[in-house]
Automatic annotation (TrEMBL):
Details of cofactor binding: Binds 2 Zn(2+) ions per subunit.
Binding site for Ca(2+) 3: D204, G205, D230, E233
Organism ancestry: Eukaryota, Metazoa, Echinodermata, Eleutherozoa, Asterozoa
Name this polypeptide is given: 72 kDa type IV collagenase-like
Organism in which the protein naturally occurs: Acanthaster planci (Crown-of-thorns starfish)
Keywords: Calcium, Disulfide bond, Hydrolase, Metal-binding, Metalloprotease, Protease, Repeat, Signal, Zinc, Zymogen
Gene: LOC110973146
GO biological process: collagen catabolic process; extracellular matrix organization; proteolysis
Binding site for Ca(2+) 4: D314, D361, D455
Kinase in keyword set: no
MF (Gene Ontology): metalloendopeptidase activity; zinc ion binding
């Protein structure tokens, strides 16, 4: 794994035991467990000179635990005990939480530093987030989910979705891109494990350490950036039971990218875990910290918000041999990459498609009859030329597809259409007008190297299929059947003539 290791203090190891109640700190002995091998990379030896530290009994109160904790300056392994009473399903009782205080991450908090110098005056302006200038030295990263939780509280699709959404949030905030692969070498490995797990830092079973992540500082060899979850714990997709996997992953991946804890209450990188939070998202503080390390994803023409260079398009399709892209109430026609046939502001959709609703979700042209199919919310429309056919819109469900699809792409050479929503893909048989047996699958199982949560897609005349995500796009080789290297690129630069 390539990292910028010079900025880190030599020998500093940060292992993250996440969001727990009363803190304890222990120095597990290193068991010389071999790191996983990746082709062509030397595996650096892990520092094994960790000072032993005792684990406090869980019956001791938090104040005593905090007073007893001991941290070795340069070589620190951190864990935390979870002391909240649990029922047989693993739920945290409110009474237990009130008695012990809010659960928190076991990683030590960074020293408070004022923007204008050190100060003991808490009323002075604080630098809220904290980074250690440990970062990846590249912006395009791959990750691989090696296995799944042993328990069956979550399906594999739910695990995939939780991890994918966590990566997407960090990618949306920075120039970083994350591409999931299903085999071979990856920059970041995600693993569920118990006790000894080919890692120098073993887990301790239920009611112990939840997870740990390795910062990308060059000191951990093949483990740099990896995230391990203790499979003795119960992870869930939603609700208060157990630990929400998306929330844990979102926090841990922040550490995997080089972020430390934040002093800002409510930030994802704050030490405390506050239970299940629906629609949890990165806060301004988290985003600022990540952008301090990796910069921002600037639009090409940031002076003009109406420029086609700045837009994240809603839908795209090849219609009568011309590429159409749609955004809000307008559309653009592109004869070839960089050659836009419409004014830079686009044209109103209803000038071309009578009574078409604005902000469509997806569109494609059927090969068998040339009809244009538009999707929005729970409905779809059929158009012949400029006008909709009578009897439309109709419900998407009658096609066996979910509402609110993200994108659709038609491969005419196979007479097959693919529909995308979140991390899943459905293959649709145009002849029988039905979803093929066995679908949906994860996007990566069908389109190797293409990330989930795409916004639009189209099969172009050059033998490639294109996938738009935000303001960027990926190119998929229909010959080699995988994503091309060197992507994503800016869609505005390459297709809109910016």
């Amino acid at each position: 794994m390539s990292t910028e290791s010079g900025a880190m203090q030599v020998g500093k190891v940060v292992i993250l035991g996440m969001w727990l109640g009363v803190l304890f700190f222990s120095g597990p002995s290193c068991h010389a467990a071999p790191a996983k091998e990746k082709p062509g990379e030397a595996v650096a030896a892990l520092n094994q000179d960790l000072a032993p530290q005792s684990k406090l009994p869980s019956s001791q109160d938090e104040e005593h635990s905090t007073a007893q904790k001991s941290i070795q300056a340069d070589e620190t392994v951190l864990g935390s005990s979870k002391t909240f009473p649990r029922d047989h399903a693993g739920s945290r009782h409110v009474a237990g939480r009130a008695a012990k205080g809010r659960p928190r991450c076991g990683v030590p908090d960074p020293v408070k530093v004022q923007d204008d110098g050190p100060s003991l005056n808490e009323n002075r302006r604080q630098k809220r987030y904290s980074v250690d200038w440990t970062k990846w030295n590249k912006n395009h990263l791959t990750y691989r989910i090696l296995n799944y939780p042993y328990h069956y509280r979550m399906t594999e699709d739910q695990v995939d979705d939780s991890i994918d959404r966590a990566f997407k949030q960090w990618g949306d905030a920075t120039p970083l891109t994350f591409r999931r692969i299903t085999y071979g070498h990856a920059d970041i490995h995600i693993k569920f494990a118990t006790w000894h797990h080919d890692c120098p830092y073993e887990f301790d079973g239920i009611n112990g350490t939840i997870a740990h992540a390795f910062v990308p500082n060059g000191l951990h060899g093949d483990l740099d950036g990896d995230v391990h979850f203790d499979d003795s714990e119960v992870y869930t997709y939603w609700g208060d039971e157990g630990y929400n996997l998306f929330q844990v992953a979102l926090h841990e991946l922040g550490h995997s990218l080089g972020l430390q804890h934040s002093w800002t209450e409510g930030a994802v990188m704050a030490p405390e875990y506050s239970g299940y939070i629906p629609d949890l998202a990165l806060q301004e503080d988290d985003i600022r910290a990540a952008q301090l390390l990796y910069g921002t994803l600037e639009p090409t023409n940031f002076g003009d918000p109406d420029s086609p260079c700045n837009k994240a398009y809603d839908a795209a399709a090849m219609i009568d041999g011309v590429l159409y892209v749609f955004k809000d109430r307008r559309f653009w026609r592109i004869s070839r990459p960089g050659k836009v046939m419409t004014p830079s502001a686009g044209l109103p959709m209803r000038k071309r498609f009578f009574k078409l609703p604005r902000m469509i979700d997806a569109v494609y042209q059927r090969p068998q009859d040339g009809l244009i199919v538009f999707f929005k919310g729970p409905n779809y429309w059929l158009y012949r030329g400029r006008r909709p056919l009578p009897g439309y819109p109709r419900p998407i469900s009658e096609l066996g597809l979910p509402d609110d699809i993200d994108a659709v792409v038609m491969l005419q050479r196979y007479n097959t259409t693919y529909f995308f929503k979140d991390h899943q893909v459905w293959r649709f048989d145009e002849e029988y007008q039905s979803v093929e047996y066995g679908y949906p699958y994860h996007v990566l199982d069908v389109w190797e190297g293409i990330p989930p949560f795409i916004d639009a897609a189209f099969d172009y005349t050059d033998g490639f299929t294109y996938f738009i995500q935000g303001k960027s796009y990926y190119r998929y080789s229909n010959v080699y059947r995988n994503a091309d290297p060197g992507f994503p690129r800016y869609f505005g630069n390459d297709f809109m003539g910016c």
